[in-house]
Fold each of these.
Amino acid sequence: MNSGPLLFLGLFATMACSWTGFVLAPQLQLGGLTQTNTVVVGDALAQTYPLPQPGEAHAGAEIYRANGCAACHTEMVRPSALGSDLQRQWGLRRSLAEDYLFAQPVMLGAQRVGPDLANFGRRSDTNGIFLRLYDPGLITRGSVMPPYRFLFETRKIGLFPSPEALVLPDQDAPPVGYEIVPRPQARALAAYLLSLRQDGYLFEAPPPPLPKTNAVPTNAAPAAAKPAPK
Amino acid sequence: MSVTVSPASTISSASLPSEQASAEAWCPFALLTLFAGAVLWLLASSLLGLRDSLNFHNPALFAGEGYLSYGRVHAARNAAMLYGFGVPAALGLGLWLLCRLGRTQLAGPAVVFMGAIFWNIAVTLGVAAILCGSSTGFDGFEMPAWCAPILFVAYLMIGLCALLTFHQREPGPLYPSQWFVVGSLFWFPWIFSTAALLLLYVPARGVLQATTAWWYAQNFDTVFLGFAGLASAFYFIPKILGRPLHSHYQAALVFWTLALFGSWGGAPEGAPLPSWIISLGVVGTVLTAVPILTVATNFYQTVHRDVNTLDADPTLRFTYVGLIFWIIAGAQQIVSALPGVSSITGFTWFGAAQKELFHLGFFALTFFGALYYIVPRLLGLEQGAWCPKLLKGHFFLTFFGVLISYISLVVAGIGQGILLADGGNSFADVMRRTMFPVRCIMLGDLLVALGTILFLLNFAGVLAAAFRQCRAERKGRA
């Protein structure tokens, strides 16, 4: 350990070991991943999965990145053996490498100060997202999420009120004659959040097995399942 | 084996030949620029952290200001901590140790000085850009794409001078600190260039970006910062106690096992990856128990007869406490990697607690300990130049600040993990119930910031004393 070059070679070998294992090998295994077909459930057709993000969602990913949303939100659902993610209805199945093929940048996050967003698009709508961004406390009482007011604009109502204007309770309402509308950034962010859905069943995470029974599936006889309306 | 370090002469330009004098005069200048920049960035990072912890008292604060919103400040705080504070601090410590242990002068001090200036300009621009929304979105690698090459070139300027300094050392056996410094010097450009290429310039496909970012963050902390801090501990503790390091063989074991196993892992349990990647990371993390236990026994054997004197010297006190925090942070990392534990503590404040302890508790305290020794010697002053009251205040404020932040984050993390493990508890409800400890980190951040301000006051005082001494010498000569 007294020779500089030997020290260098040793360090290089050690680093190469780690680099091969954690950079090169995953690249060799996952670098060639492509779109695939979903596992067929029932009489549905197999579909290509995942689909590329629409353009506005891609612009929204940039807003998500710029504002550091990943500091508080993860975008990965753990398998049921690890934590209660699936019990919380954060996803249909665990997240897989395939789910992120079109994400750029991939922001999986490191901590959950807020809920996981991997499937946020499955459980929200544009209006709800705008309200959450404008004043998170409106939807979740006592939320520590900061309001993102700079993504909205308070402006004088023109000839007609904007169909996008937020409907807010009194404490948040703008002065009379004014309305609060989302800026393009907020619209893009909402499009991104709505595009977050990991709902294709894949080979590694197949759909839950159907219960073994001889009975006719309930969806084949919908009338029998529901009580007749009075 | 004994410590082969003699108390080398303090660097002062009083009695040197004139052509050497200019290079000599640059050396303290270059190192002090690195150190002062690092401390100022540490303060900036604490202040940014303070803004973030305010969010848990009043989330609506700064709601209208994009550049002060929680997520951006969080990224800026990380960048200020890792690139503003961590890298220059590691480089400055490394350069000084290479000069001292190689009994040589700093090679190319003017280049080091320019490198330090470039680095700090790049970090300033980068942090400002992050606040304006240019963060890359990767935890631990936030600096925007145009900033990374400037950082890389500035690093190379300083790093090449460090290698030249190492090369022109006096012949003889190497001391463990020299291995650690050389290790950290090489490690950073390797991981930084890999991450910059695969995350920013030729982005890897899909989830490979996440694996690269995790691998980078793991290597940056455990190996790069870990080596730099340990180099300082391996030098100062035996040196100030006047007692040889118990075993150089154990130090070599620490060096190689930490480089080998500490560089594995980083991916959280349950990540959307083939499970061998995560398992290999867990194996590596658990095997870091070898360097941790070896450091513990090696230092215990070195100091156990002098435990009472640890309080006598500020460098010793800071370094010793920093080393204990390193052991705790490492033990926590091992525990939280175990599969049974990680499913509970994963994605909670528990991980943030470990990072806080590693960066502030271990690295910052070790760094400050070294500064209390290095700075007066660079300026040709006695160690008594430091104001003892400010010094004491700095130690206790930083120590308790780190402790308060750490304990509250651990409590919040464990509480959150246990409550969330039951799928019946609603997420928002769990967050509300664990909010009290999270609010306490504001106190910790505040104490650390105050401590750093006390250090800066003390530092300014020492610089002023050196300036007065220099002027008196010049008058005496005239």
Amino acid sequence: MSQIVKVESISKSFGPTRVLDGVSFNVDKGSVVAIIGRSGSGKSTALRCIDRLESVDSGQIEVCGHDITSPKLNLHQLRRDVGIVFQSYNLFPHMTVAQNIMLAPRLVLRRKRAELRDRAQEVLTQVGLADKADAYPSQLSGGQQQRVAIARSLAMSPQVMLFDEVTSALDPELTGEVLRVMEKLAADGMTMILVTHEMAFARKVADEVIFMHRGKVWEQGPGEMLDAPRTEELRNFVGSGL
Amino acid sequence: MTLLSGAQVHFLFQGLWWTVVLSVMAFVGGGLLGFVVAILRVYGPAFVRNLTMLYIKLVQGTPLLVLLSLTYFGLPTMGVTIDPLTAAGLGLSIYVSAYLGEIWRGCIESVPRTQSEAAECLALNWRQRLVHVILPQAVKIATPSTVGFMVQIVKNTSLASAIGFVELARAGQVINNSTFQPFVTFMLIAALYFALCYPLSVWSRRLERKFHVANR
């Protein structure tokens, strides 16, 4: 399997705080990687670096063949290849669900009207919201909004999808419906990198789990590593989390 | 006490008409210029942002009367011939642009940064983000205060009388000079200004209430 994301010893500081300290990991095409860790361990920052929402101080990142750290980076093409879903959904409140989804395919991919509508229905069906195309975000529950955000990202047919604590703002029931959508995506072969606090989900769905601590990759392995932590820190984290 | 003659009433309403024309000119001209000011103030490079801020401070720190005198008496000394209407329209536009620019800057900046970030991550370029994501939300936030400011514009057009432009206030002065009934004349003038401004402030208040309901 080819590696679609390569992160090589990236470091980053916010002022005097070193949030990333030589982080390296690779992501195979079609695999699911879950990044876990305490708040402030640098996991969200690492994810945001992959989509160039943050720049790194040193190290290298390659995503879908784009060298993120290169000054010649085609940011536009990178954003077409990478989809990202945020904790706070960030849907556009003045547009309906369908308009939210069709905006980027219309403006960026220049798809035709009929094609746009079909694609919107398709991705909405994928997230189980085929009947909500004409609703406004404010009329939906948090879980539904987050699924629309996933659909909006999917509509651009990205090669990699990033999920930044997408269920952290949701109650357990709504979390469940979002996680089921993500599980289906993973089963369909989407390459996914997710920062999450959902341990059970990480263990079940992720091909690889990365435990970050103090800006470093502390432990890395298949989901089962959560059952038998090698380090004190992961043991404490798993112990307190479950 | 005799009321105004037919000719005088006609003259008064002509003044009212020019006040409306001047207000519209100030709003359109000031709005267009103010939009540019707001965009440069938010998105320009540091040097341009500072320059725009200086422009806003300068205009806001100058009496409108002085601005109008500058355009009407100042420009001709530089070889630009200018009639009172154009001079008043220009001076008012500059004045309005500084205020609307600053109001709109705040509105653009109050759209959450995450909205722009989400649009950026969908590969929208700057112009697309602005037109399709930021501005529609900013306009909604800006509407009540902008309509409210229109009241100020209407009232401030009265200063154009100082550069010899016959709008409502000046028409009142002219009539008073022949009727010597200042109380009646200026009460009438005040009532006419009120008739222009009150609907605007009601509209503004209504928009504000609607906006608050929409954002509950």
